[in-house]
## 1
Amino acid sequence: MRLTNRQTKEMKRLNKYLLLSNSLTIADEKEKKKKLAEKSKVILGMGNLLEGNFQFKNLRQQLIYAGYEIGPGEYLVRTILLAGILSGIIYLIMSSLLISAFSFFLGFVIRSFLLKRAIRIRNQLATQQLIQALGIMANSLRAGYSFLQVIKLISEESPKPLGKEFGKVIQNVNLGLSLEESFEQLKTSFNNPDLEMVLTSILIQRESGGDLSRLLESIQETMIGRMRVKDEVRTLTAQGRLSMWVIMFVPVGIALYLQVVNPDYFHLMFQHILGWVMIFMAISGVLLGWFIINKIVSIEV
């Protein structure tokens, strides 16, 4: 009986500690969420201030192409913060204002590169999903589905980003917009000529009449052929694209290595006008080489 009482007391004590630890964990999570929400409100407020004073039509459209659900002002504020953090870290490591200022500028370049990369990846996903969607649309039309039922089916079956955007088409039609207006809004969500070709062909075919399922299959075959040619071109130009990035980053890497290993050796470049001229010529040569190789390997299909 004594052993049972002791076990009962220990169980009560353990339950007490568990409840206390759970309450502390929940309180910590709530505090973290509160701080994160406050930071997000500050960034959003600064972004709205920028948007109120400046117009960012081109940037706004690029953010839509990339699928970012933020405004241009908030995007710029986040970019400035990230560039400032990168610049501060570089200054703490290398104690050089010049390199720190360069890294601040580099933060904007990296952010712009990531935005363009997001646009490119989203377009590639949309093209791949569109090829599959065209086959589903053609088969569904032959099975007796109406065109709007087919669009709804694509919005439900296709993953993001295409399924989400086709879902917006259905929402716009239900709100009273015509199919032409809904398709025009869909075109502005992507920088994708294949999608524009498909939507334009569908609208023309609906006005002129004919076998829409056969048209969709024909477009699908054309897109598959183009995709195959693009993959072959990408494979053949892989070495050139690798050389482009090597030319871009190897000189920068060597400069950073010299700055860390032997700062006095590299600081001589900043103490004489000839060193500045050499740095300028080196940067110009790297950028020129990158630009020329990029033009050579960028083949439109």
Note: The first helix runs from residue 2 to 53.
## 2
Amino acid sequence: MKRSTLLRRAKAFPALFSRGVRCDLWCCTQSPQIRKLDSQGAEDGAVKAQQRVILKCNAKGNPNPVFKWLKDGDEVKARKGLKIRIGKRSSRLVIRNATVGDEGIYTCVAMNAVGEDRKNIELKVRSLKHKGMNLKQAHSMTATK
């Protein structure tokens, strides 16, 4: 099919070509949409120091999205005690032993050739005093878009 024919059809059926979706006879593409961003390891909305935390991000898109994680705007790289797992439509950021240094705004970014989507989750850590194991500070974890 000629390009001019496809363009005429796109003008005739704008609903098929809006909201990040583009269809033709050969393929249909869709910009990524993060469906869910949550955490495992939170207790009553707070994460304890030295506790394992898993941030999970699920997204859909065509082609399947590629993921990256940001912390306070900077890209997160795997390191000792921090792993990033990538699946076809999901990504997990695993912090083995959370510390106050891990606190911040984490952003899941899902990208493909059509576009990107991003969502934030705030990670706060309850640190413990050495003597008596009293709580020094208590924080919660909240998700935002």
Note: The domain at 32-144 is CATH 2.60.40.10 (Immunoglobulin-like).
## 3
Amino acid sequence: AQKAGLDTDKLLDTIGKGAAGSWQMDNRGKTMCAREFDFGFAVDWVRKDLAIAFAEAEKLGADLTVTKQLDGYYQEIQENGGNRWDTSSLISRFKKK
């Protein structure tokens, strides 16, 4: 949206009123667009919990392929100094121009 020069406040308002509306959109949309990630559950804690889930899944023989991909994204955020950023920091993987 920012690359296209769209007004992100208007975009979030419009999308948030439709099927794409969610708690995350309502409460983190503007901070995500502003690249502010100091508000919620830290990436370090997410990855700790995911490690527990992976251990249990292995015991049960469950396939968590998509969750492992997500964990890899959070690992990238940690490697770039975002350990204490919240879960909305996934958007930081996209370059802002």
Note: The radius of gyration is 15 Å.
